[in-house]
């Protein structure tokens, strides 16, 4: 009989489950980011898997492996001086005539809705090392972003 007509089971046709992707590059974290990562690992380790469905337990295991890896590879960065845009700074910038403020944080701590962007985001990379009053190119436009203020972000 041809293999085309043989069916071993539905499992062989299911979409494979992969590990959660680890962002490329260094795993820089703020003190807040390191604390949040530790808390995430502790919370995941505290979950009782005994009554959990097999697929849910596998999903939980993938999450736990991701966060343990992120904790193991975390590089706590020194507090920025605030003289120039750097990791951990709160930056107020002007783009298209509007002022906006963001904090440059690690990949796992980033939350654009709360004003936290990853240091690896295009905007953060464009502003890195700039000083107050300096303009930087962004999105293919020269002098698109003006640095208005830089402060050390002290976050709980």
Automatic annotation (TrEMBL):
Gene3D superfamilies: Transcription elongation factor, GreA/GreB, C-terminal domain. It comes from the Bacteria. One of its GO terms (biological process) is regulation of DNA-templated transcription elongation. InterPro entries: GreA/GreB_C_sf, Tscrpt_elong_fac_GreA/B_C, Tscrpt_elong_fac_GreA/B_fam. One of its GO terms (molecular function) is DNA binding. Coiled coil: none annotated. Residues 82-150 form the Transcription elongation factor GreA/GreB C-terminal domain. This is Transcription elongation factor GreA/GreB C-terminal domain-containing protein. It comes from Sphingobium xenophagum.
